Amino acid sequence: MTGITISKSVYLPTDPATVWGYLTGAEKLGRWFHPAKADLSDGADFTLVSAKDGDRMCWGRVTGMDAPTRMTWDFTVGPLGGHMTQVTWDLAPAPGGTRLTLTHTGLPDTADAYGLVLALDKGWHGFLGNLHDMT
């Protein structure tokens, strides 16, 4: 996959199975990211909405699940204009908890789109911080 890649890791003070629940459960996703219309499941489309007004924030399809170690999404947001990117969540046991790594690939690599890349990078940073506070 060409384009820009964002990669971030956090260490969470709980086991991978608990973290997995926060990545896949509709209600738990809403606590740290955006509410989901339904629990995420392998091969299924998903829509995440704004907690404020219910507007669609991001959407795509779960393209792979290997609970509780890896999940991949085809993923887009409105400013991407329908361009689908890929998000991979890798969970690994760590002493006393879990190392969670997010890799977001296929982002536009043009100067005109760099503001969007910066916004997504900042957003992922904040959302992973929220998740850290939840677990």
UniProtKB/TrEMBL annotation:
Domain of life: Bacteria
InterPro entries: ASHA1/2-like_C, START-like_dom_sf
Pfam family for this entry, one: AHSA1
Residue intervals of the Activator of Hsp90 ATPase homologue 1/2-like C-terminal domain: 14-132
SUPFAM superfamilies hit by this protein: Bet v1-like
CDD domains recorded: SRPBCC_CalC_Aha1-like
Family: Belongs to the AHA1 family.
Protein name as catalogued: Activator of Hsp90 ATPase homologue 1/2-like C-terminal domain-containing protein
Species whose genome carries this gene: Pseudaestuariivita atlantica
